[in-house]
């Protein structure tokens, strides 16, 4: 309100005997709106030291079966199924994690997305999806606990739908928000094939492990996650 306009307003108010208390009320609303919050982003690399491949295997001829696990960084970050005509099989899943940073924003996670590079595939025609579970494991056990348990939320989304190479991404906002709320140091996921029926033969998908570097011409990148927060 300009000084000249203010003077005219006071004069008019006096003429109709409006109490002076209304003067301060009318002028107090003339304030600029606070600026909107702008999200900041953090980019976190996949923790290769904790990439773990889990195998569930069975030999129907000898009724022998079991589980084992190993660090995938020295071999490959892959998801695989291998079923032969007699019923013997290997089924591999992949455990990955990202260290949760101290957020650049003030602590409210707006969104989060994981990115993993699919550098190669083999075997049968891709018959279904690679889906992702949100998990929380302590130690990685060579048994069914790591294979199918310790799940916070199963099938939070589909990471890969076909055999094309390149970056694959998945929105993991809800999972990251839950991990921050639970004060976890890491956000952890399990990658696995989703089949109506496991196909006969060998089928695999590689996600930027050592195979990508040595056999795919280096045309691969380390997985990472981006977290936007305000």
Structure overview:
This protein is α+β, with helices and mostly antiparallel strands. It has 2 domains: 1-31; 40-229, Jelly Rolls, CATH 2.60.120. It is built from 5 helices and 13 strands. Strands 2, 3, 4, 5, 7, 8, 9, 11 and 12 form a 9-stranded antiparallel sheet that branches. Strands 1-13-6-10 form a 4-stranded antiparallel sheet, with helices on one face. The two termini are 34 Å apart. The model is unreliable at 1-36 (pLDDT under 50).
Element layout with pairings:
Blueprint: H1 3-15, H2 21-27, E1 40-45, E2 52-59, E3 64-71, E4 78-83, E5 89-99, E6 109-118, E7 120-123, E8 129-135, H3 144-148, E9 151-160, E10 166-171, H4 173-181, E11 186-194, E12 201-206, H5 210-215, E13 224-229
Antiparallel strand pairs: 1-13, 2-3, 2-5, 4-5, 4-12, 5-11, 6-10, 6-13, 7-12, 8-9, 8-11
Q: What is shown here, in short?
A:
The protein is an alpha+beta fold and 230 residues long. It has helices spanning 3-15, 21-27, 144-148, 173-181, 210-215, and strands at 40-45, 52-59, 64-71, 78-83, 89-99, 109-118, 120-123, 129-135, 151-160, 166-171, 186-194, 201-206, 224-229. The strands form two sheets. Strands 2, 3, 4, 5, 7, 8, 9, 11 and 12 form a nine-stranded antiparallel sheet that branches. Strands 1-13-6-10 form a four-stranded antiparallel sheet, with helices on one face.
């Amino acid at each position: 309100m300009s000084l000249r306009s203010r003077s005219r307003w006071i004069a008019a108010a006096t003429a109709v005997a409006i109490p002076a208390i209304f003067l301060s009320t009318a002028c107090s609303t003339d304030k600029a709106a606070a600026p909107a919050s702008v999200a900041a982003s953090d980019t976190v690399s996949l923790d290769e030291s904790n990439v773990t491949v889990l195998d569930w295997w069975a030999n129907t001829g000898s009724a022998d079966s079991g589980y084992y696990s190993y660090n995938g960084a020295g071999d490959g970050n892959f998801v695989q199924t291998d079923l032969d005509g007699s019923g013997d099989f290997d089924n591999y899943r992949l455990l990955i994690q990202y260290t949760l940073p101290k957020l650049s924003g003030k602590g409210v996670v707006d969104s989060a997305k994981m990115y993993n590079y699919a550098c190669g595939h083999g075997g049968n025609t891709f018959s279904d999806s690679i889906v992702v579970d949100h998990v929380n494991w302590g130690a990685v056990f060579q048994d069914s606990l790591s294979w199918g348990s310790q799940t916070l939320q199963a099938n939070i989304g589909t990471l890969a739908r076909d055999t094309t190479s390149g970056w694959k991404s998945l929105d993991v906002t809800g999972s990251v928000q839950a991990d921050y709320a639970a004060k976890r140091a890491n956000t952890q996921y399990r990658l696995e094939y989703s089949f109506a029926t496991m196909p006969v033969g060998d089928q695999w998908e590689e996600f930027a492990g050592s195979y990508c570097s040595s056999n795919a011409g280096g045309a691969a990148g380390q997985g990472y996650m981006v977290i936007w927060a305000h």
